[in-house]
Structures are given as C-alpha cells and as structure tokens.
Design goal:
The complex is a heterodimer.
Chain A (H helix, E strand, L loop, with lengths): L7 H17 L1 H35 L2 H8 L4 H14 L8 H9 L4 H10 L7 H8 L1 H31 L1
Chain B lengths: L1 H31 L2 H5 L6 H14 L4 H13 L4 H13 L5 H8 L1 H29 L1
Helix pairs in contact in B: 3-5, 4-5, 5-7, 6-7
The chains are: A mainly alpha, B mainly alpha.
C-alpha cells in the first residue's frame, strides 16, 4: 500500500484561495470556513466507517479474493456487489475514492468502480422525500433506470479502458 | 487485524490533504453559489432547462435532500419534470469540483470517461423515466 500523501499541491492551492478570500472578502471567507468545519464534522462518522471498512476488506479479502469477486472474471456477482455497495454507501462520493483506489491496486475493475459510483444515486434515506415530491411511480421507474444505466456505464468503461490498454 | 487497521489509518492519513482540499472547496462553493442563484438559472425553455439542470446539479454541492427541496420549489414555478430529473440526478452523480480528487485517485482517463458517461446517462435517464411514466399512465 502506497501511503505517500496525495494532493499536497491541490491542498496548497485551496489554502491560497482561502488566504486570498480572507484578504479581499473576509465575511464570505469566515462563512466558508464555518461551512467547511461543519462538513468535516458531519463527515467524521463516515470517515471512521470507511477506515473500519478498509481494514476489514484488507484483512478478510486478500488480493486474490478481490480479483475473484471484483476482478476481470467477477461477472454478474461483481456487478451485483458493486450495485449493493453503491446503494448502501453513505456520504459524499469523494470520501470513497481512497478505498476504491486501494481496491483498484488489488484488481478491482474500472467498470465496477463506475457501477458503484453511479448506483450511489439510489439514496434509500431520501426515497420518502422523493416520493413526496415526485410520486411513487416516478421514484420506482427512475431508480430502476439508475441501476440499468450504472451497469451500462460499467460495461462501456471496461470496453473503453480495455481498448486503450491494448493500443 | 491490528496490522490491517493500522494500514487503513495510514492510508486514510495519506488522503487527508486531498480530502481537506475538496471539503474546503465545497465550503467556498456553498457560500458563493446559493440555492437562489441555482433557481434563477431555470425557466427559459424546456430544452435549455434540461442542460441547465444537468450543469447546475453537477456544479452544486451539499446533501442530496437540498436538491429535492430546490426541485420542489422549481416544480411550483412550472419547470419541466425533465429538467428537475436531470438536476436532482446530476446533484448526486456528478460533481465538477470532485474531478481533481477523482482523477488523482482513480486516474485521469477513467475520470474523464466516467464523468462524460454519467453526464449523458443523467439526461437519458430523465427522458426514459418520463417516457415510461407517460406509457404507464
């Protein structure tokens, strides 16, 4: 596992933007800091969950098993696990990138990452709100299409990346 | 197990700079791009609203429930269901400000292809959903 810090330059750029904001628009800068702190606070349990989940995956799923369940020959089961994982995963998409990158190093297919990331659009806790605004038929149809298109995206990504890697 | 746990913490610490940068960027976006600003983008024509919905959803940040609350307000203003669908869907599936982080972790090529596909899918899903809904009713 490569534990070299990632995105240092990106982090420095954002710090510079904040310094600039504090100089030219300190009111909004303070608000942005308050928003950022609030987001970080709400993300703490999700980060803790991801750390535990990554540890469990590293402990129970050896690279060979990751390859079997989520690799080239994972088939329909791999797609199914990715959809379920995507639906059940909470928090913002970027919180999951680290774990996915780790699994990718051990053989996780690009297509399944795409399936996982798009399946996250099925948000179980938000379904009651969606039903209240758009109705039950719309909610059911939309969520079925989300899953269908997540699978299609996965297939296309695999095809494209496969073609690119053989070129 | 202890080794796996320590490895997981070390791995998480290594991604902290990019996580903090993304969250910092989200904070700035939430201050400068308000819900009212997003709502004001709609209402020109059904066709443009679909693309506005997709772009606005992709640029906006915050909890998914906010997109539904904005959509509810837009619905009462007469914005089409196509546009509302692309907007709420893009909010949770696309994130322009996450692209640098996605590219850093999952590769630039993958990120470009995935986001283009997600963008197209969002529009197609909105169309398919409403056409199917029309066929059922």
């Amino acid at each position: 596992m490569n534990n070299k810090p990632k995105g240092i330059k990106f982090f420095i750029i954002i710090v510079c933007i904040y310094i600039g904001l504090f100089i030219f628009d300190s009111n909004h800068a303070q608000l942005a800091i308050a928003k950022t702190s609030h987001i970080l606070y709400t993300l703490l349990p999700i980060f803790a969950f991801i750390i535990i989940l990554t540890a469990l995956i590293n402990y129970f799923l050896k690279p060979k098993q990751i390859l079997k369940h989520f690799g080239e020959d994972s088939g329909k089961a791999g797609i199914f696990y990715s959809i379920i994982g995507g639906i059940l995963s909470h928090g913002p998409m970027y919180a999951w990138y680290g774990m996915l990158a780790d699994m990718k190093k051990h053989g996780l297919k690009n297509g399944l990452i795409a399936v996982f990331l798009y399946s996250r659009a099925v948000k179980i806790p938000l379904l009651p709100l969606m039903i209240a605004i758009f109705g039950i038929p719309y909610t059911i149809i939309l969520n079925i299409y989300i899953i269908i298109f997540a699978i299609i995206q996965g297939k296309i990504i695999d095809k494209i990346m496969e073609t690119k890697s053989t070129q | 197990m202890k080794k796996a746990f320590i490895g997981s913490i070390k791995s998480f610490i290594s991604i902290l700079p990019v996580m903090l940068a993304i969250v910092g960027l989200v904070g700035i976006f939430q201050v400068y791009i308000t819900n009212d600003m997003i709502s004001s983008l709609f209402g020109y024509s059904n066709f443009t609203d679909i693309f506005t919905g997709t772009f606005a959803g992709a640029i906006a940040t915050g909890h998914g429930s906010i997109s539904f609350i904005i959509a509810d307000g837009l619905k009462t203003q007469g914005v089409s269901l196509y546009a509302l669908s692309t907007f709420t869907l893009a909010w949770v599936t696309l994130g322009f400000i996450q692209i640098p982080a996605e590219s850093l972790f999952l590769g630039t090529q993958f990120t470009i292809y995935r986001n283009i596909l997600a963008f197209i899918s969002t529009i197609l899903i909105a169309y398919c959903t409403i056409i199917t809904l029309g066929l059922i009713k």
